[in-house]
Fold this protein.
Amino acid sequence: MSRPKRKRFVSQAPIMEGFRPFGVPAYDLDPVILLLEEFEAFRLVDFLGRTHAEAAEEMGISRPTLTRVYEQARRTVATAFALGKAILIEGGDYTMINEQKEMKGFCICPSCETRIPHKPGHPCRQEVCPACGKLMVREGSYHHQLINRKIGEVNNEDRSTKQ
């Protein structure tokens, strides 16, 4: 039996939920998931210029673990760039250490539009709507925009067939 996985410390949540390539319609994109701990490793090493040992200490993990997390982040970003995929930053096994900068917002039900406050560290796609029981999405996220676009297309088709 392997030992339990340690939670990684994340000092700040990203200011965005992801990226998408220009020139490709949102509904044609397949996203890749960049976990929050991968984003943090990428931020510490590449953006802030920390060594792997320093970044590992900040995240509360060993240096070899940091290297594995960092390499997975690089592979995810490279895959998105090379194949023209969207990058969604979400999920993972982490603990926020700076509560003031955690992600805020709402989870919204695409069916009945019920909104509930977002719980940091818990993806909205794992929340069940208290009103209708369907899965929720992050308000304003890539998935929310995609669902709204599809609903708009269906409504336009309904209007054109009635005329």
In short: Helices lie at 36-47, 52-59, 63-83, 142-162. The CA atoms of residues 61 and 72 lie 15 Å apart. The mean pLDDT is 84. The chain has four helices and eight strands.
